[in-house]
Amino acid sequence: MAQVVQRRPGAQEPEAQRPTRRDLPWPIRFVNTTVGMKWVMALSGIMLIGFIVFHMIGNWKMFLGNQAINHYGEFLRELLYPILPRTVFLWIMRIGLIGAFLVHILAAYRLVLLNKKARPVNYQSKRNYIAANYANRTMAVSGTIVLAYLLFHLADLTWGVSGVAGKGWQRGMPYENFVASMSRPPVAIFYIIANLLLAVHLYHGAWSMFQSLGVNSPKYNVARRYFAIGLAVLIGVGNSIMPLAAMLNIVK
């Protein structure tokens, strides 16, 4: 016979048992940890670094003339055509990159919150930045500027937003649009400064992502340092020479 439990008048009903953190799937529990967030930042950063490098190499075709880079732009729009409709695969890649970018930003923001929670009181004395270099200390600033640069870059050369893009912007004409935009010295200088800050950001990101993935040994640290420096120089110089060449009428 079932036992009837009597409650006193005015007693509250017991609350439904809420799932604890242990009840969540392992991937979610892992991502909610500091180590998990660093893994997310590292993996999304690898995706973004790959895109930046290949995007830069493709854009170097502008030095071969307008036909070379315009043909390259059309090639990207026809990837996997006719297996998929025109531009579909390009948009799949764009959505994947946007997702990686958003995940990277959210993971960085989450890490900042976790760090503040771990140390709610600021340092009482001036910090000694022997281990933390300039790139490390300015990651938030350089990342914010790079985000603003990305939005401006899309409005300027991809979307052709009126008042932002160069005069006479034409869809599907990347060479002419780039030259028209970079012919404006303030815009070209902004691109150069933003890409130099991107290089600073990538330097620290390329150095720290190996540590986040557990590859941290004195045996490899020298190679890690050279890789981070080489990537930063490649991106900083490689992306800056294009607006500089257009501003100086080397490319016209």
From TrEMBL:
Q: Which GO terms describe its cellular component?
A: membrane
- Membrane-spanning parts: 39-57, 88-113, 134-152, 188-206, 226-251
Extract the InterPro entries matched here.
Cytochrome_b-558, SQR/QFR_C/D
CDD domains according to UniProt: SQR_TypeB_2_TM
Enzyme Commission designation: 1.3.99.1
Q: Which domain of life is it from?
A: Bacteria
Q: Which UniProt keywords apply?
A: Membrane, Oxidoreductase, Transmembrane, Transmembrane helix
For this protein, what is any one GO molecular function term? oxidoreductase activity
Enzyme class of the recorded protein, top EC level:
oxidoreductase
Supply the Gene3D superfamilies for this chain: Fumarate reductase/succinate dehydrogenase, transmembrane subunit
Name of the protein in question: Putative succinate dehydrogenase/fumarate reductase, cytochrome b subunit
Q: Which species does this protein come from?
A: Candidatus Neomicrothrix parvicella RN1
